[in-house]
Amino acid sequence: MAFSNRTKYLAKVKTAFRCCVCHKPFVEVHHLIPAAEGGQNSLQNAAPLCAGCHDLYGGNPEKRKALRQMRDNWWNAISERNKRLTDVSEPAPPFEIPEDPHFEGGLRRSRFILYHRIFSDEDFRTSVSTIVKMVHSVQREYPNRQRLFFLDIDGHRNKRGHFDRDMFELQIQFLGQFMLQYLTEIHTPLLHLRNTKLQNNDVPDHLQIVEGGGQKAIRQAIAKGVGEIWLAEAGAMLRVTKPDVRGRKVSVARGRRSKGK
Question: Residue 143 sits in which domain range?
Answer without folding.
Answer: 108-202
